Amino acid sequence: MILSLDSQFSSQCKMAASDEVLKDGKAVPVGFGKLLAHTDRVVRDRGFKKLRKWLKKNPDLGRLEFMKVWKGLYFAMWMADKRPVQQELAVQIALLLNEIPLERRTMWIECFWDTMRDAWEKLDAHRVTDRGKDTTPTSCNVSCSNHLA
């Protein structure tokens, strides 16, 4: 029974991310936030891939859409529970810049900083430290060279 419910939920998530609503002549995604903030990494990864494709298809997005995307990406990082998962996601998020047209990249980065500013004070102590140990990374062991092409 659990397996069938899980497969039903996964198929609903696929449909939610593939559905788009036209609003003011623009395609607005339905369900990216839910996919990116999902507790299951497989669902989050699937949502991230769909987001990347959606960004490629919609090069003329504005500030509001970018803010919504960054909010979803923030919660995707929030839900990434282990350092290697977080590092891989950080690289993938950084590489999203390649999907943003040159003339909109400044706005994309501004939206990132606005999201971080708004969310910073809401971070709980457990996200900043892990049982009294500082979890601030001293170095990144994730290589970006195989992602750049």
From TrEMBL:
It comes from the Eukaryota. It is found in: Nucleus. It holds the Pfam family Nop52. Keywords: Nucleus, rRNA processing. InterPro entries: RRP1. Belongs to the RRP1 family. This is Uncharacterized protein. The lineage of its organism: Eukaryota, Sar, Alveolata, Dinophyceae, Suessiales.
